[in-house]
Each structure stands twice: as structure tokens, then as C-alpha cells.
Amino acid sequence: MAHEIPLHFRAALNPRELPAVRVQRLWALHAELSTAVGLAQAAAWLPPAWPHLLQLLADPAPEVRAAAVPLLGHLGAMLAGGREPRLAGRLPPSALLDWTLALLSPAGAAANTPAAQRLTPEIK
After folding, report:
1. Do 15 and 64 form a contact (C-beta atoms < 8 A)?
2. Half-sphere exposure (CA, 13 Å, Cβ side) for 119?
3. Residue 72: which pLDDT band, with cuts at 50, 70 and 90?
4. Which residues neighbour 71 within 8 Å (Cβ) at sequence distance 6 or greater?
5. Residue 89 and residue 31: Cα distance in Å, rounded?
6. CB of 79 closer than 8 Å to CB of 89
7. Which UniProt keywords are listed (predicted)?
8. Mean of the pLDDT values across residues 92-102?
9. DSSP string covering 53-67, please?
């Protein structure tokens, strides 16, 4: 899957990059996903990359979080359109609630592990 993820998204995940550069890359990805071709290509990589999207939504830089929010709409459009059946059953029903509580709790905010990694089910 990593080879399918666009460079815009992979580079935006790098916390060593300046927030302004990461925001610029996320907006470039948003523009790419706003086309029918870009959205169709993202059907292969965006749904399985949801933990990374959660990581961006929990980023310490508010501008990175704000630039990542539109990607939720693209993910929702794919899931609503039934383009990604492989995701069914892989997310626990309480994943969003668990993620929100982890972000709001003092222990969750201070943890070194990103919320997305704490909430990703272990592969057995």
C-alpha cells in the first residue's frame, strides 16, 4: 500500500517538516482528490490509510489539523459510494468515540504514541 500513497500525503505525515510545508502538501492532495480521477485512484489507498489521517487530525499544529479535515469528506464520499468494501468490519464501531476521548483525556494528550496508533486494532 505504501507505494500507492501519493507523495503529498506521505510527506504531510512527517512531523519534522515545517507545518506550512505540510499544509501546502495537504491542500495539493485535496485539490487532487477533488477530481474524479484523483478520487478514483485514492480508493485504493485512502481508506486503509485512515490511521494516518487520524494522526494528522491529532497533530500539534492547528493549521495541519485544519488542512487534514477536508480529507475526511473524501474518505466519507468513498465509503458512502461503496467504493471500498475492504474497510467493512476493520473499524470498531466505537473508533471515533475512542479516538475523541483519547485526545481529550490528559493522559491521551501527553502520550507519546499518536492516537491513531493507540486505536488501531492489533493484527493477529
Report:
1. no
2. 25
3. confident
4. 26, 29, 30, 33, 46, 53, 56
5. 30
6. no
7. Repeat
8. 61
9. HHHHHT-SSHHHHHH
The yes-or-no verdict on residue 66 having pLDDT over 80 is yes
State the average pLDDT for the chain.
Answer: 74
Q: What was the pLDDT predicted at 121?
A: 53
- The answer to whether the CB of 19 falls within 8 A of the CB of 65 is no
Angle at 68 between CA 79 and CA 48, to 5 degrees: 40
Distances (CA, A) of 47 to 10, 20, 29, 44, 57: 15, 25, 15, 7, 15
Amino acid letter for position 58: A
Q: What is the grid cell recorded at 13?
A: 505525515
Where do the domains of the chain lie, and which CATH numbers do they carry? Answer: 7-90 (1.25.10)
Res. 2: pLDDT tops 90: no
Q: Fill in the amino acid letter for 75.
A: L
Rounded-to-integer distance, Cα 35 and Cα 23, Å: 19
Mean pLDDT across 26-32:
90
